[in-house]
Specification:
NADP; 21 helices; single chain; FAD-bd_FR_type; alpha/beta; CysJ; about 600 residues; six-stranded antiparallel beta sheet; six-stranded parallel beta sheet; flavoprotein; amino-acid biosynthesis
């Protein structure tokens, strides 16, 4: 770009200076200084010679343009929050004024003033919003929601395509904002468990479209934004670059005679520079069963040593290694069947994925894997590469951390229950849990990373009482909580509700918890072993038995934590808390629900459910 004196407000000398300077500027420098002048046009600010910035100056009169961007996240386990934070940092680097907030902390009555809104939202369970998205979600879908004709927005939706209501929360936000008059800055992107590439593409599109908006006002000209850079973490290892952790210990926690197997896994973090807190998780990249891989290759008549590309970078591996380590083959999803229908000559598969057959398709997906699919709908066409290219990348399996880094430096402990069941005439095995139970010895390695979960954390004030409800493997993070509180000499009371099937064989970490009760780290413990009595007794029954004391703990400011099964246990425990508030607090159902909602807002009611 060359400036001319006749169409600019600059002198000849200024034009010559600009024409020498402008071609040397980076895109980031141009954007930054544009924002700088916009923010300081009415002040007497001087740029020092040490400030390494400049811009392309508009030849038009100043135009009112908002460089303010609001980024809201709804996150259960931290993925959406991490992406929202990375996006916000990038926006700030490019000169935007960013408001980053959890949906639960966002003041809904300020929404009308927002011009640029970016939403990153996960879908929890069967199509429901994550806990910290519920207040904003309900507001937006209520009659109190304002018209938003001045809003431009974009939504990044996270989900799991193996669920029927894939990315439903993000879809709902996208639809509702449009209904309220908002205009899409960039189309919604739906991300599966392997979200890195899709999320990076959405970020790049959002930033590019924000740039176009600025260009159209004359504030910025001739620049392009690239939004795929991610701020480096303290550790060199991450979700995309996992650490090879040595297995220090692998024990079965269940006693002889139990029909369950729960592994206690101890991993070395030495050399990883990983930092974690109680409430965080470990993500493990597992290995598929060799027997399943070989059966699949044999059924398809493939050559196990044929090289196939396993990512967009073109990295090649043998088919056998790729199916073992890179691709998910134990779970079927609707998108996968829609893609494989193009590679099959079987009309039955084409009919199965056709519109109107949703119930039949859902029933087929349940409990079947890729071997079932290739057996049921042969013959197949296309190359090996075409087939593996439509497979979902191996997603990590997340497990709550069962240790405190203060108590166990350079170690992390996990609690993993082995999954085995029969379905459609074949034995099925959990990919990661079976690998840990049957094929992982001390001295071997696991590919892992630390997954931070800011939504499941101990109170910042160690005097605050805590109530922990975690049957089965849901007790894992509470072992970490108590180790942490023991190491830090926390003064607050602690109450654990724990349950499983049998006292003699299924009391996980029994000696640890009994020692903590004896030492006063754990104030009280109530247990429920459902198969030891004629009538099944669960943790919610123990809560009702102690309802008066539990209510008093709540009134005294206790924080409540729930970990475990979302579909049944967490739902039952939530309803039990409402019942206790009604009975002991004399509240109506509406008041009890509002009480728990207020606890969530204060971060006194946190759930890690799955």
């Amino acid at each position: 770009m060359q400036f001319q004196v006749m169409n600019s407000p600059f002198s000849q000398e200024q034009v010559e200076l600009l024409n020498r300077l402008v071609p040397t500027l980076t895109q980031t420098q141009q954007i930054w200084l544009s924002g700088y002048f916009t923010a300081t046009q009415n002040s007497n600010t001087t740029l020092h010679t040490t400030t390494e910035v400049t811009t392309v100056i508009s030849t038009d009169s100043p135009v009112a343009i908002s460089r303010e961007v609001t980024v809201l996240f709804g996150s259960q386990t931290g993925n959406s929050q991490g992406l929202a934070k990375a996006l916000s940092i990038k926006l700030e680097q490019l000169g935007f004024q960013v408001t980053l907030s959890s949906m639960s902390d966002f003041k809904s009555n300020t929404l009308k003033k927002v011009q640029n809104l970016l939403i990153v939202a996960s879908t929890h369970g069967e199509g429901t919003p994550p806990d910290n998205a519920i207040p904003f979600y309900e507001f937006l879908h209520s009659k109190r929601a304002p018209q938003l004709e001045d809003l431009q927005f974009s939504v990044l939706a996270l989900g799991d395509s193996s669920y029927e209501f894939y990315c439903q929360t993000g879809k709902d936000f996208d639809k509702r904002l449009e209904e309220l008059g908002g205009k899409r800055l960039s189309p919604r992107v739906d991300c599966d468990l392997d979200y890195d590439d899709s999320a990076a593409e959405w970020i790049e599109n959002v930033l590019a479209n924000l740039n176009k908006t600025l260009e159209s006002t004359g504030v910025v000209q001739g620049t392009t934004l690239n939004g795929t850079e991610i701020v480096a973490e303290q550790s060199a290892y991450s979700r995309t670059v996992p650490f090879k952790a040595e297995v220090l210990e692998n024990l079965n926690l269940n006693g002889r005679g139990s029909d369950r197997e729960t592994r206690h896994l101890e991993l070395s973090l030495e050399g990883s520079n990983f930092q974690y807190e109680p409430g965080d998780c470990v993500g493990i990249y597992p290995e598929n069963s060799l027997a399943l891989v070989e059966s699949l290759i044999e059924k398809m008549g493939w050559n196990s040593e044929e090289l196939v590309s396993v990512n967009k970078k073109g990295e090649a591996r043998s088919l056998r290694d790729a199916l073992l380590n890179n691709f998910e083959i134990t779970v079927l999803t609707k998108p996968l069947l829609e893609q494989t229908a193009k590679l099959s000559s079987n009309k039955a598969l084409e009919e199965l994925v056709a519109p109107g057959n949703e119930v039949e398709l859902r029933n087929y997906l349940d409990g079947r894997d890729l071997l079932d699919l290739v057996q049921d709908f042969s013959p197949w066409k296309g190359t090996v590469q075409e087939f593996v290219s439509i497979l979902r990348k191996m997603p990590p399996r997340l497990y709550s951390i069962a240790s405190s880094s203060k108590a166990r430096p350079d170690e992390v402990h996990l609690t993993i229950r082995t999954v085995q069941y029969e379905s459609h005439g074949r034995e099925r095995y959990g990919v990661c849990s079976t690998q840990c139970a049957e094929r992982l010895e001390p001295g071997e390695q696991l590919s892992m990373y630390i997954h931070h979960n800011p939504n499941f954390k101990l109170p910042t004030n160690s005097v605050t009482p805590i109530i922990m409800i975690g049957p089965g493997t849901g007790v894992a993070p509470f072992r970490a909580f108590l180790e942490e509180r023991e190491e830090s000499s926390a003064e607050g009371k602690a109450w654990l509700f724990y349950g499983d099937q049998h006292l003699l064989t299924d009391f996980l970490y029994q000696l640890d918890f009994q020692r903590w009760v004896k030492d006063g780290v754990l104030t009280r413990m109530d247990v429920a072993f459902s198969r030891d009595t004629d009538k099944k007794v669960y943790v919610q029954h123990r809560m009702l038995e102690k309802s008066r004391e539990l209510y008093q703990w709540l009134e005294d400011g206790a924080s409540v934590y729930i970990c475990g099964d979302e579909k049944h246990m967490a739902h039952d425990v939530h309803n039990t808390l409402i019942t206790i508030l009604e009975q002991e607090g004399g509240k109506s159902t509406e008041e009890a629900v509002a009480y728990l909602n207020d606890m969530q807002q204060q971060k006194r009611y946190q759930r890690d459910v799955y």
